[in-house]
């Protein structure tokens, strides 16, 4: 799921405090996903929905500042060391990661699945911590991986827990991405919100990928206003909906409650 750049900045371009050039530069950096080693100006222009000439100026500037590195052999760019320093500083401040890790590993060992901690970035959830069972057949996702907000258990848990105003804004932006699929996506989100109220978790049983099952909860870490989410998931043949809802769900909810009250 690609995320809009021009539309996102367009809604706030009338704000005189908003620096469009800075926003576009950050959008270029955000185009690099966990599976992207290098990207060229043409691909960046397509993802950002900006002219290639504009992208060329942005990549030149970001390279000069160390946020991108130009690879002459390929004529493409990869993330530079300056972005690493920003990311490592942010992760170091996430106390929830350190507190959650042993609890997540315990749940991963019980479920023989993958348990991940994530936070929202625009219309994606980004994994900031991962725990796997040694015996698990898990997904090829790791820290830094992005998954869709609208169709995954983790993203739906975030949408179910966030404020109504934020949810409506996010749903408007999700609709803009794919008007044709929107009725089905909206139904899935609305059902997830109701599911969260009834069962305390959101599920995605084949909704994101047909062979993947997962459930998730969202929580606010102690001392933070920002929502985070934890999911437990894996291949559908190894994780049935009954097992996730009956056996994993109470443990996942207890994990979320402990993280919300840690340090209180």
TrEMBL record:
SMART domains: HTH_ICLR
Record flagged with keyword Signal: no
Entry keyword set: DNA-binding, Transcription, Transcription regulation
Signal peptide: none
Annotated InterPro entries: GAF-like_dom_sf, HTH_MetabolicPath_Reg, Tscrpt_reg_IclR_C, Tscrpt_reg_IclR_N, WH-like_DNA-bd_sf, WH_DNA-bd_sf
The IclR-ED domain, residue ranges: 82-264
All copies of domain HTH iclR-type, residue ranges: 19-81
Gene Ontology biological-process annotations: negative regulation of DNA-templated transcription
Pfam entry (one): IclR_C
The keyword Ribonucleoprotein appears for this protein: no
Superkingdom assignment: Bacteria
GO function term, MF aspect, one: DNA-binding transcription factor activity
SUPFAM superfamilies on file: GAF domain-like, Winged helix' DNA-binding domain
Stated name of the protein: IclR family transcriptional regulator
Organism: Caldimonas caldifontis
